[in-house]
Amino acid sequence: MKQHKLELEPSDYLSDDDDNEVVMREYQPLTNYYKRRHLFESRERCGVKKYLKELKVSAGGGGSGIGIIKPDALLPNEIINYVEDGDVGEAAELQWKAMVEDIKQQQQKQGEGLGKFKNWLVVGRIPNNFAVCLRFLMSELSEEPWKGKFIGGKHQPEWIQGDHDLKSKCEFLRKSDDFGLLKAIDLILELGVNANLNLKAEHMIKKVIVFRLLNPDDRIHWQWCSWDWCYEKLVREVEAIRSKYKEKGYGDDAVPHILFWDVCGNRRIPHSWICTQDPGFTRLSGFSDHLVKSFLDNGGEIGPHHLMEAAIADKEYQALAVVD
């Protein structure tokens, strides 16, 4: 196979001018690639809907779709994209249930990959449907008292018992406010030290995923602000969490690991692919279906090598050679 050398001109990099038009011009090579990806994604979505239509026909024939359902056929965010679709919404609900049951079986076997998810919580903004579906998936895979619960509500955060269909939960969550990480921690501790529960460290929430939506101006700020300042800000937040746990009588073994996941809200601007791992927290920036699959296949474990593999997983990159 013929190999091609990937070379970037100086104009391929982000300038320090924060004007959006300048940003778009400087990012034009990568932006063109992302526009092509949107076309491919549209074709892929057609394949997802075709599968769900076949599932709908099977379920309509009285077989409940059991014979055709492949639990791992779709990613969670692909399922949730169609849960409110008037044509295949019910089929999406069936696919979701099959996927969750398959993951639970992996958990019972204490297997690798998805079987590792247990007692995780997702909070923060809603930059995309993956942030929505991951909330529900983590809640359904958790043990009591976290099982089926996610944080929502208006004005004041509260635990929501999500014993409803996926469509209803999506509608409710989109009406909820974003209360931030520290208020979520307060709710975790409130439930954990409940007089009737008094949970031990091993039964507390293990990991909290915090989705953060970046608009283009935010993205430029994060690109160019002092890395030390960003790091110190997150360290202070994690230290505040440790203090809250200590006040309630818990040690560091009960403190959840925090994954800060930054997602750019403007699809026209390419993501910055960043992953740093520090004591108590991980910072991740970037998003693609390849990254979602890697995240799920590895039981939520994410590192720089996973990020690199996801970033170059598209077919367009396979003919490129890395040169030093």
From TrEMBL:
InterPro entries: DUF7788, UCP015417_vWA. It comes from Prunus yedoensis var. nudiflora. Transmembrane segments: none annotated. This is DUF7788 domain-containing protein. PANTHER family: OS06G0652100 PROTEIN (PTHR31373:SF17). Residues 126-302 form the DUF7788 domain. The lineage of its organism: Eukaryota, Viridiplantae, Streptophyta, Embryophyta, Tracheophyta.
